[in-house]
Design goal:
By secondary structure, this protein is α+β, with helices and mostly antiparallel strands. The protein has two domains: 97 residues, no CATH class; 47 residues, Orthogonal Bundle (Arc Repressor Mutant, subunit A), CATH 1.10.10. It has seven helices and five strands. The protein has a five-stranded antiparallel sheet. Strand 2 and strand 3 form a beta hairpin. The longest helix is centred in the C-terminal third of the chain and has 15 residues. It is elongated, with a radius of gyration of 21 Å. The N terminus is likely disordered.
């Protein structure tokens, strides 16, 4: 099975969009989870509820953006959520009012980190012969980079506790001498 390279489509998974639907006419704002000839999977909110959604996030209430699938025959228009002149995009308005980037909030449970960041090459290559400890270190540091140093999110992605992540980072700060010893506790 061969894998096709990721396209550079502006409507890739993780892109923040405004979808206009027909029959009935509705508008939704959110992040693309998947777009195909069959339809659009989106996590977001009805545009008429956008301000309520911002208030909910700003007030620390539980997150309530829906995950929706719209068959392609209903999708009348799909546009990137971009600023127009001096008018900010909805994503920028969201960030200004909540202090948070909407993309990670909308896609974190559904897309791999590379799709969340809009990067096609968010991979980590580990060569044969790399020790397991070094591979683990590289993976942890790369995951932190991909999450903009969000330790809670990185721990979730890595399926480790936040405490384990903090311990590993402390270990890396100490250098290899601090944790390389044989069973007797003698340095190698």
């Amino acid at each position: 099975m061969t894998h096709e390279p990721h396209s550079a489509s502006p409507f890739r998974a993780g892109a923040i969009v405004i979808a206009t639907l027909a029959n009935p006419r509705e508008k939704f704002w959110g992040a693309v989870l998947q777009l195909s000839a069959v339809g659009l999977s989106l996590r977001g909110v009805d545009l008429s509820s956008f301000d309520d959604f911002i208030s909910q996030i700003r007030d620390g209430e539980p997150f309530a953006a829906g995950v929706m699938f719209f068959p392609m025959h209903r999708v009348e228009r799909l546009e990137l959520d971009l600023p127009e002149g001096s008018i900010p995009s909805l994503a920028q308005r969201f960030a200004q009012k909540t202090g948070q980037d909407p993309a990670p909030l909308l896609v974190s449970e559904f897309l791999p980190v590379n799709a969340q960041n809009g990067k096609d090459d968010d991979t980590l290559q580990i060569c044969v012969g790399t020790s397991v400890g070094e591979a683990e270190r590289l993976l942890i540091l790369r995951t932190l980079e991909a999450t903009s140093n969000n330790k809670t999110r990185a721990a979730e992605i890595l399926k480790i506790s936040l405490k384990t992540l903090h311990n590993k980072l402390h270990e890396y700060e100490q250098g290899p001498e601090a944790h390389e010893s044989d069973a007797d506790g003698d340095p190698r």
